[in-house]
Amino acid sequence: MTDQKEEKIDLREAHTQSERSEQELARDVKLEKLVQEGIDIHPHKVDVTHSVTEIVSQYTSIKKEDLEKQQTEVFVPGRILSIRRMGRATFFHVSDGRNKLQVYLRGDKVGQESYERFSLFDIGDIIAIKGVLFKTRTEELTVLAESFVFLAKCRHPLPEKFHGLQDVELRYRKRYLDLIMNPEIGDIFRLRSTLISDIRKYFDERGYIEVETPMMQAVPGGALARPFKTFHNALGIDLYLRIAPELYLKRLTVGGMNKVYEINRSFRNEGISSEHNPEFTMLEFYEAYTDYNDMMNMTEELINRLSLALKGTEEIPYGEHTISFKRPWKRMKFMEALSYYSGLAPSRFENKEGIVEFASDFVSEGTSLTYGKALDVIFDKFVKQNLIQPTFITNPPKEISPLAKASKENPDEAERFELVIAGMELANAFSELSDPEEQRKRFEQQAEERKKGDDESHRIDIDYIQALEYGLPPAGGEGIGIDRLVMLFTDKKSIREVILFPLLRPKK
Hints:
Layout: H1 2-36, H2 52-59, H3 64-70, E1 73-86, E2 89-95, E3 100-106, H4 107-110, H5 112-117, E4 126-135, E5 141-152, H6 168-173, H7 175-181, H8 183-205, E6 209-210, E7 216-217, E8 229-232, E9 237-241, H9 246-254, E10 259-267, E11 279-288, H10 292-311, E12 315-318, E13 321-324, E14 330-333, H11 334-342, H12 352-359, H13 371-383, E15 391-394, E16 416-421, E17 424-431, H14 436-451, H15 462-469, E18 475-481, H16 482-490
Parallel strand pairs: 3-5, 6-10, 14-15
Antiparallel strand pairs: 1-2, 1-4, 2-3, 4-5, 7-9, 8-9, 10-11, 11-18, 12-13, 15-16, 16-17, 17-18
């Protein structure tokens, strides 16, 4: 029975492939006819005058009568999205990926030969139209075509127009098709581009220097994460893809670059979820003579400014919530949040073995947990989801903060914060640990955890310790997840929606 079922599936897939091939074959025949008629099917350049979006934004509000008087000539490129043939005339729409524009094609205007040639064009083809703008009786902005130029053939049929491209995984695998069929997707990435540009402007105005640090590192560091490993043939050494640029940026602070930032690609060999992609983008910045309190103030200022610039308001919708970036933001200590949201009495946390046992129910079997890591597991399980409005969770255990200074009030805590918004961690910042001897001890403690099976523990970086021996001034440093920030400002629940090409399992 199993073999019969598999055979039916194969036959159905083959039938579907055959149907697609027939449509593609028809398009290939049309392309060959264009070649036979002497049409350059891969032209080098076209001197257009406007984009579709420029025409729509500049001329939509002009009255029909005024547009007729102006006789505005345009030469506009676009992808054909629809065709409606009506005997001696044809209406079709072209798009530039943001807006669409109607074109009116008549045989007596473009010449009968050209008009008949248009029958060789398909939905999805790219052309440029020269003509005059006018408005139809229904007030639709339209180009009365005088001529047109072929620019590119779409050799595959686009998805059926009423249902569009809905399959989520197909949208991610074929992002180019997603952008063609769902123009609003392009708006996400235009906002992302503007957001990154505004971030650069913010730090440049404050005298920061934008730098670049290595993506391949002999010792991966700057975060607790499992790295991707590779091999350099010429040098004969193992290298690791960057999990964070932190240790290199602090080396620069040692060297006298007191205000540095990097918008960086980082890589972590971890699971994929709605908030995690193995390749992601972070902003990291470091400033000498500051601490984690200064970082909190800067973070409030930066994100509030981004909200005003991108959305024109300090309040934005996210799912069923309204997120307010009005300052000041809530600040709550880690242990206070843990007790409040988990329902565990503060006295329960004095029993370290009991807490480790309690947290082990929420991790995969065999996972090595220290007391600090157990607290972090409980935080992820019970606290994050309840933090909707911007909240700084401060002073977590020093044990899970190997690069942060200990708190002056409580040496078991770190001068560190996590920013949580809408249940997502958006930022992580420290008062940077500057004592080389203490840093060595922290690294050695992490190395012991690695021996016990924790492959996310920090490795010992001797060169970084030596850099600290030259003197790291008091400094605050922070990392902000760009992808999650874009999720917030575009009201998206999945990180894959805001990454152009998210990592997917290859199709067989």
